[in-house]
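Hey, resending since the last one bounced:
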Amino acid sequence: MSKQTLRCPNCNKNIGTVSEGEYLYGSPLRTCPKCKKLYHDPRYHEIAIEGIRREDIDPDSEYLAGKRKSGFLSILGGIGVMVAFVVLIFLGRIFYFFPVISVMLIASGISTLSSTTGGAVEKKKIQLQQEATLSRARMQNPQYVAQLRSLGYNVPDTNYQQ
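The structure tokens again:
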């Protein structure tokens, strides 16, 4: 994922870098650390309004399947680098950074795979249920709903206090 600069819509100051296409749950209202004004961060989504994306909780989704594939490929790449290291040793050439690269690839692959297992998916579901409870509570605050609307967040007229 590529990175992009996040700028405050009020003062246009750089307030950090973010991953392009990042999708987060929570309040989309943020305060600029520079000018201290509120703004709507489009990366954040209120679960009470938008719900939870299927790919975030379904272990059979294409997203998680892609992550598993990426993890396996990383592990295979690490094994391949280690094999190349051994072959090069027999040829009289030693590249000391090959084992480091190999271990890094394998560790990355294992980390990616562990984030797609049943336990990790269940933990994510629990976190999202907790965030859904917080989201419903936020949406009962009429001032919060009014702030969301004033900053351009699409809040339906039903179910929320005016």
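The radius of gyration is 22 Å.

Sorry for the duplicate.
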